[in-house]
Amino acid sequence: MNPYIMTILICNLALGAIITAASYHWFMAWIGLELNTLAIIPILAKHHHPRATEAATKYFIIQATASSIILFSSIINAWHTGTWDITQLTTQPTPTMLLIALTMKLGLAPMHFWLPEVMQGTDTTTALIIATWQKLPP
């Protein structure tokens, strides 16, 4: 992979983590998480091997599902409270759905079924990024 493209992808990973960590708005936190997901996909698939492609596809499907659950829970919360503020989780289904989505994104048990398969399909550097940097924003 071109070093300039790799630098841009790594900068997008950092930018996504910063946007997510600094946001007080549900939509901005979701955008940061999506930026992180979309920046790591080409890094996962940079080796032209079927296992790398499979790992990138599994990672994308799981992260997209978790992101849609986060967006859905934030919409429900905004519908009930009238605000998109992250600190106001007052309705009951919202914290439960948010917990499930963050558990999926982090790869915590019982939602960890995707993590070992994705780690096996990547190289060591990419697995290190997934195991450390990708866990910071959620």
TrEMBL record:
Keywords: Electron transport, Membrane, Mitochondrion, Mitochondrion inner membrane, NAD, Respiratory chain, Translocase, Transmembrane, Transmembrane helix, Transport, Ubiquinone. Its main location: mitochondrion. The chain crosses the membrane at residues 57-76, 96-115. It is found in: Mitochondrion inner membrane. Pfam families: Proton_antipo_M. It is a multi-pass membrane protein. Residues 23-136 form the NADH:quinone oxidoreductase/Mrp antiporter transmembrane domain. The keyword Transmembrane applies. It is an enzyme of class 7 (translocase). Its EC number is 7.1.1.2. Belongs to the complex I subunit 2 family. This is NADH-ubiquinone oxidoreductase chain 2.
